[in-house]
Amino acid sequence: MQMDKVQRILADLQSTASTVDGRATLPEALCATCATSLQVTGVGLALMSERGPEGLVAATDGLAKTMEDLQFDLGEGPCVDASAAMRPVLQPDLRKTASARWPAFGPAVLEAGIEAIFAFPLQVGAIRLGVLDLYRDVPGPLSSETFRDALSFSDAATRLLLYLQEQMNNQGELHPDLLLAHHNRPEVHQATGMIAVQAAVGLAEALLVLRARAYSDGRSIVDVARDVVSGNLRFEPDGKDS
């Protein structure tokens, strides 16, 4: 039954993309359909890896983008936990749980106006592909039926990511519909590599260093990354910066 639902979602995407916006990508169409069908305020779709968030693929609105940006910048949140645990993370009332569970992300997402988040991992076996994040601007749980439908949309999103990448015929490049994730954070990836060399640490630790500096300065990770790339900020092997 769920597979039939997934097939219907995928079959309707092309027409939805042309209806929503003449330039809408298939991931954008899926997010728009998901938000409407499940009656949530907004939806975001992000690529994930073992390192954590890799970038935004699609979002229904500015607040959904903010939700994904915060998780990327801070390296914590429902999206990160859902991907790491490979199971949904359901937070129907963020005011009761978010600040204790995610000290940086919790206050920031509440200040933005998001009251509930439901994160569904996109995976094939042990391979992490992404996360489908649903949010509401009012607290409240998903009904049993809505939860089942959300699982269908997450299955559809997984199949869509695989389908799009298969179209590239193993060229080693991202499909154009996924390029937003790549172009969204080029400075961060470049800065991470530079910090790894400067501080003589691995890439994962370098990204943590970058996030920690951004958090302590109260700036976005992109702004700090640009300082690293421009040479205005360097990190030494002893952990100090200059």
The assigned CATH architecture of the largest domain is 2-Layer Sandwich
Characterize the quaternary organization of these chains.
single chain
Query: How would you classify the helix and strand content by structural class?
Result: alpha+beta
What is the fold named in CATH at topology level of the largest domain? Beta-Lactamase
Beginning-to-end CA distance, first to last residue: 59 Å
Question: Overall 3D geometry?
Answer: globular
Total E-strand runs: 5
Please summarize the sheet with the most strands. 5 strands, antiparallel
Helix content: 55-70%
- The radius of gyration computed from the alpha-carbon positions, rounded to a whole number of angstroms, is 18 Å
Strand order of the largest sheet: 2-1-5-4-3
Number of domains: 2
Superfamily (CATH H level) name of the largest domain: GAF domain
The total of helices stands at 11
Nearest-integer average pLDDT: 85
CATH class descriptor of the largest domain: Alpha Beta
SSE order, as H and E? Answer: HHEEHHEHHEEHHHHH
Strand content: 15-25%
Which segments are poorly predicted (pLDDT under 50) over 5 or more consecutive residues?
none
Question: What key phrases describe this protein's structure?
Answer:
GAF_ANTAR; alpha+beta; RNA binding; 242 residues; 56% helix; Beta-Lactamase; ANTAR domain-containing protein; ANTAR; WH-like_DNA-bd_sf
Describe this structure as you would to a colleague.
GO terms for molecular function: RNA binding. It comes from Allobranchiibius huperziae. This protein has 242 residues and is of the alpha+beta class. The protein folds into two domains: 1-176, GAF domain (Beta-Lactamase), CATH 3.30.450; 186-230. It is 56% helix and 16% strand. It contains eleven helices and five strands. It has helices at 2-20, 26-38, 62-74, 78-85, 94-101, 105-112, 144-166, 179-183, 186-199, 203-217, 221-230; strands at residues 42-49, 52-59, 89-91, 116-124, 127-136. The protein has a five-stranded antiparallel beta sheet, sandwiched between helices. The protein is globular, with a radius of gyration of 18 Å. The N and C termini lie far apart (59 Å).
